[in-house]
Design brief:
With 454 residues, the protein is of the alpha/beta class. It has helices spanning 4-10, 14-23, 26-34, 36-39, 64-78, 91-99, 105-108, 111-114, 164-174, 193-200, 219-229, 233-238, 254-260, 330-344, 359-366, 382-394, 405-412, 428-447; strands at 53-58, 83-88, 118-120, 125-127, 133-138, 152-156, 182-187, 204-209, 286-294, 305-312, 317-322, 348-352, 373-376, 398-400. The protein has an 8-stranded mixed β-sheet, with helices on both faces. A 6-stranded mixed β-sheet has the order 13-12-9-10-11-14, with helices on both faces. Strand 12 (348-352), helix 15 and strand 13 form a beta-alpha-beta unit. The N and C termini lie far apart (80 Å).
C-alpha cells in the first residue's frame, strides 16, 4: 500500500499540490523523493519475517529492477562494510540493467551519494558512497561464484540464467557474511528447475504482481500489451507474472521427467565423475553407448551440447551424463567429446553438422576420437526432431539415469509445434540428447527390416 503522505499529495488538485511542494525546503523535497517506501507500490517492498530468499515474480514493467536497486542501496547505506553480489544471465546484462539501467543502482542513488559512487567496469564492481562494494557475476560462469563471500545478493531474471542451478548453488554457499545473509530474486517467472526449487523452500518469501500494478506505465502501453496477449499463456506469464508449471504442449512435462528418473543402488558407471549426476548402470550392462554432440556456431556463442546415452539389454535407453561446455574453442569441446567417448566406452559419436559441416568430424578425429563419427543434418525443427524421443520417455523406454538440472530445464522448454521457452537462446543439451537417443533407438528401429507373412 502506498505511503499515506504520497497518497495525500496525489489526492490534491494540481494547483494545491504545487503550493504544498513550494512550501517544502530543498532538503525536505530531497528527503521525500529519496524515501523509497513512500513511493513503492504493492509487492516492491521486502516482506516481513525471517526469510532467507525473497522472490519477486512479476510481469514486465512491474518495477522489479527499481525494487532490487532500492533494496540493495538501502542495505549498502546501512552497512558500509557490506559485500554484495549482483548476478544476471550475463555480466553485460548486469551492467546494462542492474547498474547503468534507467532504474539501476546509479539511477536510484540519492543526489548526495552519486558523486561518491565509483563504478569500475574493468573490475566489475560498484563502490557505494558508504564504502560498501557490489561485485558483478555472470550466471553463465557459475565457477566465478566459488569462493567469494557476501552479505546479500541480488539475482536478476534468474529464470533465464543459462546455468541456473549451478550458479544458484555456488552463490548460496558464498552467502555467509553477517548475521542474516539474504538473497533477492527478481524475475519474470518461467517453470525452470532452479526457480521451482527456490520457491519450494520454507525460507522463501514471495511478492510481485502484474504489469499494470505499476502506475508509472503508460496507459497506452498497458492497453496495447493486454490487447495483444490477453488470454494467452505468454500474457499470463509475461504480463501477469504467473508461474506456469509446464509450457503449453510441453514435450517433457516436469512430471514426466520425474517419472522417468532412475536413481538407486548398483555399480557406478566408469564416467560418472565427468557428468552432473551419478549413474547406476555399469558399462557392461549397456549394449551400446553413443555420445551426442550439438556444436556451437562460434566459440563465444551457445554451449556445445555433449550428452552420453546408452541402451541396455532390454532395449531401454538412458541419459547417462551431461558434459556440455560453454565458451570453448572447437579443439576444446572436441577434446571434451573425446574424453567422454573414452570414459564411457562409446561405440559412436553423433554430431550435428549444420554449424560446422565436415569440420566437426575432422576436429573430433584430430582430438583423438577414433571411433565412428556420424554427421547428421538438422533438416527439421528442433521440436520435430525431439517428438519421437519424447514418445520414448512417455512409453517408459527412455529414462534419466540421475539428475541433470540444466538439461531438464531445456527439455521442459520444448513443446509440440516447434516452440522453445527454456533458458538460453537454444536447447543445445536437449539437441545433443535427441541426436544420441535417435541414433540408439529411433533410427535403428526404422532401419530394421520388417517381417512379411505369406
Amino acid at each position: 500500500m502506498k505511503h499515506a503522505a504520497v497518497a495525500a499529495l496525489e489526492a490534491l488538485e494540481e494547483a494545491e499540490l504545487r503550493r504544498v511542494l513550494e512550501r517544502l525546503t530543498e532538503a525536505e523535497r530531497r528527503a521525500l523523493a529519496g524515501h523509497w517506501p513512500a513511493w513503492a507500490h504493492d509487492g516492491q517492498l521486502a516482506p516481513e519475517g525471517p526469510w532467507r530468499t525473497w522472490t519477486m515474480l512479476a510481469g514486465r514493467g512491474f518495477g522489479k529492477t527499481r525494487a532490487g536497486a532500492e533494496w540493495v542501496s538501502a542495505f549498502a547505506r546501512a552497512h558500509p562494510e557490506a559485500s554484495i553480489a549482483l548476478v544476471a544471465a550475463t555480466a553485460e546484462e548486469a551492467r546494462s540493467v542492474m547498474i547503468e539501467g534507467r532504474s539501476g543502482l546509479l539511477a536510484v542513488a540519492r543526489v548526495d551519494e552519486r558523486e561518491a559512487m565509483v563504478w569500475e567496469p574493468t573490475r566489475r564492481r560498484l563502490v557505494f558512497a558508504s564504502g560498501a562494494v557490489a561485485s558483478v557475476y555472470s550466471a553463465a560462469n557459475p565457477d566465478s561464484l566459488r569462493g567469494p563471500e557476501h552479505h546479500i545478493a541480488w539475482c536478476d531474471e534468474l529464470a533465464k540464467w543459462p546455468r541456473g542451478q549451478a550458479a544458484w548453488d555456488n552463490l548460496k554457499l558464498g552467502l555467509r557474511l553477517g548475521d542474516k545473509p539474504r538473497a533477492l530474486v527478481t524475475t519474470t517467472p518461467r517453470a525452470v528447475a532452479a526457480l521451482k526449487r527456490i520457491l519450494a523452500r520454507g525460507d522463501t518469501a514471495t511478492s510481485g504482481g502484474p504489469t499494470w500494478a505499476n502506475p508509472h506505465n503508460s496507459e497506452d502501453f498497458v492497453e496495447g500489451a493486454i490487447e495483444a496477449h490477453k488470454g494467452t499463456r505468454f500474457g499470463r506469464q509475461e504480463l501477469e507474472g504467473v508461474l506456469l508449471e509446464d509450457v503449453e504442449g510441453a514435450l517433457w512435462p516436469w512430471a514426466l521427467m520425474e517419472k522417468s528418473r532412475q536413481i538407486g543402488g548398483g555399480v557406478t558407471s566408469p564416467g560418472s565423475h565427468y557428468g552432473s549426476a551419478a549413474n547406476t548402470l555399469p558399462r557392461a550392462e549397456l549394449r551400446r553407448v553413443v555420445v551426442g554432440v550439438d556444436p556451437p556456431a562460434s566459440a563465444g556463442g551457445d554451449a556445445c551440447g555433449i550428452l552420453v546415452c546408452g541402451l541396455d539389454g532390454e532395449g531401454i535407453g538412458y541419459v547417462l551424463a551431461d558434459l556440455s561446455i560453454a565458451g570453448a574453442s572447437p579443439e576444446g569441446w572436441a577434446r571434451k567429446v573425446a574424453a567422454a567417448a573414452e570414459a564411457w566406452g562409446a561405440d559412436r559419436v553423433v554430431a550435428e553438422k549444420n554449424n560446422g559441416g565436415d569440420m566437426v568430424a575432422s576436429v573430433l578425429r584430430g582430438a583423438g576420437v577414433g571411433l565412428p563419427v556420424t554427421l547428421v543434418h538438422a533438416a527439421d525443427g528442433k521440436a520435430a526432431r525431439a517428438e519421437p524421443v519424447a514418445v520414448l520417455f512417455e512409453s517408459g523406454r527412455a529414462k534419466l539415469a540421475g539428475r541433470f538440472p540444466e538439461l531438464e530445464e531445456e527439455l521442459a522448454g520444448l513443446s509440440y509445434g516447434g516452440g522453445y521457452q527454456g533458458p538460453g537462446r537454444s536447447p543445445d543439451r536437449a539437441d545433443a540428447m535427441v541426436w544420441a537417443l535417435t541414433e540408439l533407438m529411433v533410427r535403428r528401429q526404422r532401419a530394421e527390416p520388417g517381417i512379411r507373412q505369406l
